[in-house]
């Protein structure tokens, strides 16, 4: 069977507090994108993982392998899996590539092994793999809280185009959180972002988007700050780093600006993609 693993961006990411276990309580507005990896998953005689991306680890560190091990133990599965991944989501980008693959694998095992898991069951599995996996399982625009496990989906009509640009440097999620200065960083208003989306107020939306983690990512790599300034100067209405970076997304409703920018940024950056929100 073929399963899609959609990327995400955070239109709003507010880090509320640091917890005793080192994780952070968050409030976020997350949206899935049309950009996706494709997983081919079949029952097999032994486990096999392949990918067209030579950078992706194929060992027990891969989120897909971690899902297989965890679900095999939890449900005493005898089955083995052949998995082939067509990778389109760049790594260390803040687009949840590894988490999206993990979520797709949970859905695939559920179907191939006839487990009939509820979304709550899947989220319990997913959050053991990573904080972004619960959102990737639900795969709908949502207000997300806790460390990423509380998902409240909502619908909206506001339409816009998105240009994704990633510099060659990546950002480690763990380091971005460790370096964060909660007193200095931005604390954007997620309820306001949700309201602008639902009121179809694109200009207002672009004023409200924000990400607490930009503060530490900008200190970790100047490339992200430089890219954000370039996209803003190009004329995009809203520009923000996604997640812990290093990918920056730029929003516009102007198709000709979008096409010109795509050609321009492609000459200077290794990953440039046009996409939209998957509603
Ligand atoms: C930045 C985001 O992508 C925003 O959606 C997520 O918060 C990160 O999600 P993720 O990559 O799935 O995160 P995990 O793989 O669970 O954790 C990676 C590291 O990020 C930090 N982390 C993650 C989530 C969270 N709420 N607080 C944290 O402090 C922890 O140091 C952890 O060691
Ligand atoms: N299935 C996978 N796809 C991509 N990377 C994976 C996968 N499994 C493990 N990894 C490892 O995880 C690291 C981070 O990759 P990922 O694409 O998930 O980062 P990210 O974009 O920062 O995600 P997030 O937005 O969730 O923080 C990679 O450098 C890679 O070594």
Salient structural properties:
279 residues, Ribosomal Protein S5, domain 2, 2 domains, four-stranded antiparallel sheet, 10 helices, 29% strand, binds 4-diphosphocytidyl-2-C-methyl-D-erythritol, binds adenosine-5'-triphosphate
Overview of the molecule:
With 279 residues, the protein is of the alpha+beta class. The protein folds into two domains: 2-153, Ribosomal Protein S5, domain 2; 161-275, Alpha-Beta Plaits (2-Layer Sandwich). The chain has ten helices and eleven strands. The chain has helices at residues 63-75, 97-112, 119-129, 133-138, 173-179, 190-198, 202-208, 214-220, 222-234, 255-266; strands at residues 2-18, 24-44, 48-51, 80-86, 142-146, 150-153, 161-166, 210-211, 238-241, 248-252, 271-275. Helix 8 (214-220) packs across helix 9. The two termini are 23 Å apart. The structure holds 4-diphosphocytidyl-2-C-methyl-D-erythritol and adenosine-5'-triphosphate. This is 4-diphosphocytidyl-2-C-methyl-D-erythritol kinase. It catalyses: 4-CDP-2-C-methyl-D-erythritol + ATP = 4-CDP-2-C-methyl-D-erythritol 2-phosphate + ADP + H(+).
